[in-house]
Amino acid sequence: MKIGELARRTACRVETIRFYEKKGMLPPPPRSTGNYRLYGKMHVERLLFIRRCRSLDMTLDEIRRLLQIRDTPQDDCSAVSAFLDGHIRQIGVRIAELQQLRNQLDSLRQLCSGAQTVAQCGILQELDSSGFASD
């Protein structure tokens, strides 16, 4: 199939498919006599795998590592479990950071009732001052 068909089957933009090829995550397909890229079932499966990993918020480096592991099906899968444990830990850290950010925003929001002029806005005053801690 040509790249447009691959894009339709995987709900992926053509530019994204080319990007994954350039990054070495999707192997370059053979070319037709007319120099068209000809993709096969393996490309569909690999691209769907990449897209699923992206939907789980994995970085390109993380996906590349999983693809390397996936490409050695005879190896022990404990590396996959260890990888996922690390990703779960990273997500936990990000959740804690986002919660802290929300708490800061909630505190900031309490500084203004909205019934004042912009010049009297406690939020803007706090953001203008160095008093609001970012950590």
From TrEMBL:
Q: Which UniProt keywords apply?
A: DNA-binding
Q: Does the keyword NADP apply?
A: no
Q: Which GO terms describe its molecular function?
A: DNA binding; DNA-binding transcription factor activity; metal ion binding
Gene3D superfamilies found in the cross-reference section? 1.10.1660.10
- SUPFAM superfamilies with a match to the protein in the record: Putative DNA-binding domain
Task: Show the stretches that span the lipid bilayer.
Answer: none
Q: Which Pfam families match?
A: MerR_1 (PF13411)
Q: Which domain of life does the UniProt lineage start with?
A: Bacteria
PROSITE patterns reported for this sequence: HTH_MERR_2 (PS50937)
The residue ranges of the HTH merR-type domain are 1-69
Q: Name one GO biological process term.
A: positive regulation of DNA-templated transcription
Tell me the protein's name.
Answer: Cd(II)/Pb(II)-responsive transcriptional regulator
What organism is listed for this UniProt entry? Syntrophotalea acetylenivorans
- Taxonomy-wise, where does this protein's organism fall, top ranks first? Bacteria, Pseudomonadati, Thermodesulfobacteriota, Desulfuromonadia, Desulfuromonadales
